[in-house]
Amino acid sequence: EKGGYDHFMLKEIFEQPTSIYDCLRGRLDANAGSITLSGIEQHADKIINANRIIIIACGTSWHAGLTAEYIIEELCRINVEVEYASEFRYRNPIINEGDVILAISQSGETADTLVAIENAKSKGATILGVVNVVGSSIARASHAGVYTHAGPEIGVASTKAFTAQLTVLTMIALKLAYVKGTLSMHRYRELLKELDSVPEKVAWILNHQKSIKRIAEKYKDAHSFLYLGRGYNFPIALEGALKLKEISYIHAEGYPAAEMKHGPIALVDENLPVVFVATKDTYHEKILSNMQEIKARKGKLIAVVTEGDEVASKLCDDVLVVPEADEIIAPLLNVIPLQLLSYYIGVAKGYDVDKPRNLAKSVTVE
Length: 366
Ligand code: M6R
Known about the structure:
The protein is built from 16 helices and 12 strands.
C-alpha cells in the first residue's frame, strides 16, 4: 500500500511530480498558450469584475490561499482577502452580491469551511471550490470549481494536496489574467512554460534530498524553530512551520522575515535554528540582510536557496537547494524540502508521522 515507502507521508511527498502533472494535464497547454478550466470559464466575467475575492480555508489550505492572494493580486489586479473559515463564519462578515468566495479544502469536509461558504452563499456570493475529494460536501455546495486531482492523501499532514492546490490556484490566476488582459502575452506565455516545468523541477529536488536527512539529525533536538520568508515565500514559511509542529512536536513559528525585528529576534541565540525561504526573487537582497541579522546573533541558519547562489549559501550553516524558477512558481518548489525536513525530523524522533497525536485527517467538528 505504501508502495515501498516507510510512510504514507514520504510516499505522498515523492508522488508530487506525478500529482502536479496530473493536476496540469488536460488543462495547461504551454505550447498552445492555453489554460482550460471550465468551472472558472463559466464565471470568468463575474470573477474579474468582482469587488473582491475572499479566500476561505483552514490550516495548510489556508496557506495555499495566502500564497494565492499574492499571486492573484499581482497577476490579475483583483482585490483578494484571505480568511480563516472559523473566524469568517462567526464574525458576521460583510458580503455583497458582487463578492466571489474561493473555498480551498483537501477533504471537502472541513466543517468551518463548509458552514462559512453556506453563509456566504445565502447572502448572494458566488462560491468557487478548489477541492481534492470529488463529490465532497464543499464541492457540492460550490457553484463551480476546480478539482485538484492529487489522488487520495492518507498522511494526516497535507503535502501533495498543498502543491496541487497551489498548481490549481496559479492556473486560475493565469486564466483570469488572460481574460482580464492584465499580463503581456510574453509574460503570460513565460509563466505557462514555467508552470509546465514544475513536475520536472520537483523531481530534481526529490533526487537531491540526501543531505536533508543529515540536516534533520543535526537539528532534531532543538526546542523551537523560526521559519522566515518574504512575499510569495512568506506563506511557505508558515507552511514549513506548521509541518514541523505537526510531525515532530517541536514548537515552530512562521513569520514574515521583516517582522522579525518587531519582536521574534529576541528569541535568537546559538540554540535557535532559523529556516529561511530565500530563493532568488524580488526580495532577495532584503532577505539576505535579514539572514545576516540572524547570523550576527549566532542563530543557526538553514535556508532554501536557488541552485548556484553562493552568496546565500555562504551565510548558512545548512542549505536546501532548489532549481531556479520564476518567483510566481517558486512557492510550489520551495515547500518540498521543508516537507522533507519535517518528515525526517519526525522520523528521527521516532514519532508516528502518518498519524500525529491529537490530529484528525479532516476536522468535521468545529
Ligand atoms: O481538508 P482541508 O484542506 O479542508 O483541511 C484543512 C486543515 O485541517 C488541514 O490542512 C490541516 O491543517 C492539515 N493537518 C495540515 O497538514
